[in-house]
What we know:
It holds the Pfam family NDUF_B8. The chain is mainly alpha-helical. Among the domains are: about 1-90, no CATH class; about 95-125. Helices cover about 45% and strands about 10% of the residues. The protein is elongated and about 90 Å long.
Amino acid sequence: MVAGLARIALRSTPLRAATTSSNKMTITRSLHSSSIMRAEVVDKDPQLGDYPQFEPRSTQSRRDDPRYWDRQEKRNFGETLHEQDDVLGVWAPDLHEGVKPASAVRQLLLAASLFASFGGLVYISLPDRPAVPRTYPRDGLANELGGAQQAALAEGAFDKQEEEESGEDDE
Length: 171
């Protein structure tokens, strides 16, 4: 059983590439802003020691296959992980290879305008208030609220008093 698992592990492409790797590795990356492909030679990281250096490829780009040992993470048993597996794993931010930035902005603006127009339509279609705003007798219940000073503080009458005093100073 262990020998069978070892054969399955050796058949996986990343492990086979690791066993044949040299000190330098050619990495092909695609530019998201254009369709130009470029290849560059990268020196092997000295801090990795003898750990294999794989091509950075997200596991989200792997096809779904029921033969994976871990179908959720899309990997086989004993498969050597990439150095940056947390960045390239299934739980990393999603890959959006088919959506151009201009199209994404256009879709976002369309959604925002639909949301705002729905809110405006609801605002316009709401009926007026069925009641008149409440009014209180005796200067807005000044005595009941604790006297003229407290009632003025609650209603903002000090603002008017300051405006009158500043108008007298100007004369």
